């Protein structure tokens, strides 16, 4: 796949703490230091309760972030604007993980800009993608792991994309069932530039109906505007 890079920016170092892992063996399994949970306040972009349900603390729990780290490592992928590759993520977390958690809890964390690249489409045009840094990919994965069970129950049974324990094979199986029932037409649609044009304010409004921890809403909003 041909990829054209649009721009790069230098990283911002957000911490200097060098005592992240409790055990040296964590270097092979991820990191698992637990910070003391604390109630905080921050300037927020939503009227939702700032710490209702302690959702942010759940996202930042050691087990959840360790799982997120392993998923990012498994997915591999390219570097972000800071140039950090996936294989360097663990060492970075060992050196800076406590500071990262504290910055998020204090509402001071600012995600890095995404690295813009272009990939060719089948029609000869190009699609622009934004690649987050590996650190931001881990934080986003941690958010997704906590929110996914909350929203899964509300999704359509006919939806198969980007959902746990569902795949393109499941969608094809359902299509075959419909064909056996006598359905003969298929509608193929592609919403042009959907992710570029979706209303962020509307998305935040919808998320706020369920997510009552305003700190989580604020963190998601920071990623949306990044």
TrEMBL record:
Sequence ranges assigned to domain Reverse transcriptase in this UniProt record: 119-220
Pfam families referenced in this protein's UniProt entry, alphabetically: RVT_1 (PF00078)
Name of the protein described by the UniProt record: Reverse transcriptase domain-containing protein
